[in-house]
Amino acid sequence: MMLVIRNEHLNEILKKAEKSPVEICGLLFGRKNGGQVTVEEIRFIKNRLNSSHVFEMEPLEMIQAIDLKVAGIFHSPLCKPIPSERKRAEEGKNKRC
Q1: The pTM is what?
Q2: Per-residue pLDDT tens over the stretch 21-80
Q3: Contact at 8 Å (CB) between 62 and 46?
Q4: With contact defined as beta carbons under 8 Å apart, do 2 and 32 qualify?
Q5: Which of 62, 64, 1 is nearest to 31 (CA)?
Q6: 23 catalytically annotated
Q7: Which of 26, 65, 28, 67 lies closest to 48 in space, CA to CA?
Q8: CB contact set of 36 (below 8 Å; sequence gap of 6+)
Q9: What average pLDDT score do residues 10-26 get?
Q10: Among candidate residues 55, 42, 37, 34, the one with its CA nearest the CA of residue 14
Q11: Top-confidence residue, 46 or 87
Q12: Alpha-carbon distance 26 to 66, whole Å?
């Protein structure tokens, strides 16, 4: 797969990198067409490690950058479903897996 990025986007990334005392990071958004992906938009994301040699993108900024809203949460208990500690306390029960 080939990544195609316009000079204006590449220059914007390079300019920001030259001015920054920390490693910069971000997301590239684009469309797939055959064997290539063409970048249509870039979004810079804060490097929450504030490091010049490693990066970790700020998760909330990543979610906001892709215009998604959290619709819920999920988890996978390793035993049969049981009420939470709080729920058991409310109900006066103390059952475990």
Answers
A1: 0.68
A2: 999 999 999 999 999 999 999 999 999 999 998 899 998 898 888 876 666 666 655 566
A3: no
A4: no
A5: 1
A6: yes
A7: 26
A8: 1, 2, 3, 4
A9: 93
A10: 42
A11: 46
A12: 11
Catalytic residue among 23, 56, 58, 61: 23
The two structure tokens encoding residue 36: 């290539």
Three-state SS string over the chain comes to CEEECCHHHHHHHHHHHHHCCCCCEEEEEEEEECCEEEEEEEEEECECCCCCCCCCECHHHHHHHCCCCCCCCCCCCCCCCCCCHHHHHHHCCCCCC
CB 38 within 8 A of CB 60: no
CA distance 65 to 2: 23
Cα 75 to Cα 82: distance, rounded to the nearest angstrom: 13
Query: What pLDDT band is residue 93 in, cutting at 50, 70 and 90?
Result: low
Tokens of 33: 């067409």
